[in-house]
Amino acid sequence: MLKIEGRATKFCDQISRRSFLQIGGLAMGGLSLPQLLRAEQQNPQRQSHKAVIMIFLNGGPPHQDMFDLKPDAPAEIRGEFQPIATNVPGIEISELMPRVAGMMDKFSIIRSLVGSEGRHDSFQCCTGHQFRDPKPQGGWPSMGSALSKLQGAVDPSVPPYIDLSQKMAHDPYNIKGPGFLGMAHSPFRPDGEVMSNMTLNSISTVRLHERTRLLEELDTYRRKVDQKLAAESSDNFTEQALGVLTSSRLVEALDLEKVDPKVRARYGIDDPKVLGFDPKMGYQALMSRFLQARRAVEAGARMVTCSFADFDYHSDNFGRGRKVIPLLDQGVAALVEDLHERGLDQDVTVIVWGEFGRTPKINDKAGRDHWSRVHAGLLAGGGMPAGQVIGSTDKWAEAAVDRPVHMQEVFATLYHNLGIDPATTTIPDNNGRPQYLLERQAPIRELI
Question: Per its UniProt record, what PROSITE patterns does this chain match (predicted)?
Answer without folding.
Answer: TAT (PS51318)
